[in-house]
Amino acid sequence: MNGTKLRLGVIGCGAITETAHLPAALSSSAVELTALCDNSERRLRSMERMFGLGSIGFRDHRDLFGRVDAVILALPNHLHVSVGCELLAKGIHVLCEKPLATTRQDCEQLCQAARAAKVALAVGYFTRFYPSTLLTKQLLESRFLGTITSFDYEHGSVGGWAPHSGYNLSRATSGGGVLMVNGSHFIDRMLHLFGAVHVRSFADDSRGGVEANCVATVECMVQGQSVLGRITLSKTHALADRLRIQGEGGIVEIGETQKRSVTYYPAHHELRHEIMTKEETGSAEQDYFRLQLEDFVQAIQISGEPRVSGEQGLESVAFMETCYQLAAPLPEPWVDEPLERLKEVLPPADRKPSLHSSATVAVS
Asked: How far is CA 268 from CA 70, 253, 264, 272, in A?
């Protein structure tokens, strides 16, 4: 280490590094950024110029050995296990971008490597650092809503498949579609809030590729009661982007971008309350990627566990792997039904259309 600062490297110079990890690292007094790594020379030089870093870029992650104490691993998902295990074996602490890996087996391999080398392994689920996440956990544990009866989560946008590498367009490199790439943040929060959650059903539109839409029904135990939940994710439709928890005392709702408060709708009253902790009242917005990084550094310094450990990252991937194993086709009548109906209204194949004729096909 250089003084009291941890020597930090960042491996992978994609969009998340440019917009979040590098600004967090450069604004933190807990680390000194000593290396960048990416297989693209152009991308490395672009990052160095953009952030005024000097010549700290390398194209092979092995060149970081001896130059860093810890890394942020922000490569495409399928590379996490191979590169991560090499780093861990060298005694380098790893903060891995979500998901930890693409399969439960690969996650177990990473966790074992961290245990064997006695180094920290954290997973980049930064929404765990939102005050709204911590507050929701407190409200559930205090039985604020009384008996919990159900919860549902939905998140959807039109498009948004835009990493620099395009890795998320292939199941081989991403591990899955909207569930793995976007939904995993909520999966992590769900397991944190509700404990063990079991998949009852899962349907998606992958058709052998990566899914753009999926729906899961789940079940968990809260305060000794069985609670059903529903998860809806989309990359083709705009959805409400919120978690809603229903209890006998009303509803708590947390918007996807609602970082510092939760919204409470009491039962039997047409009222709406914004709830936040005393510490958050009047406070400035935080850089949650920096908080995540500094939590990782603190875990290294005290030989403790980061807020989101490798084992917790494994649980999220295991949940998603179960979903994919149970996957049924999502009903798509606009794809499957019109073909047969078109055959009924189109002219027979042996009848040549007139140059002056026209046909109108209406599919209701």
From this structure: 52, 16, 12, 12
Average pLDDT, 10 consecutive residues per value, the chain (364 residues): 80 96 98 97 95 95 97 96 98 98 97 98 98 97 96 89 62 87 96 97 92 96 95 94 97 96 94 90 89 98 97 98 96 68 64 44 35
Radius of gyration, CA atoms only, the chain: 24
Question: Residue 7 has which token pair?
Answer: 């020597």
Tell the burial category of 26 from Cβ atoms under 10 Å away from its Cβ (0-12, 13-18, 19+).
Answer: middle
* Cβ-based neighbour number of residue 230 at 10 Å: 16
- Closest listed residue to residue 70, CA positions, set 141, 7, 134, 142: 7
The token pair that represents 268 in the structure block: 């039997």
Label residue 265 exposed, middle or buried (CB < 10 Å: 0-12, 13-18, 19+). Answer: middle
Question: Exposed/middle/buried for 145, CB within 10 Å: 0-12, 13-18, 19+?
Answer: buried
Query: Model pTM?
Result: 0.88
Rounded-to-integer distance, Cα 168 and Cα 163, Å:
8
Please give the helix or strand (H or E) that residue 214 lies within, else none: strand 213-222
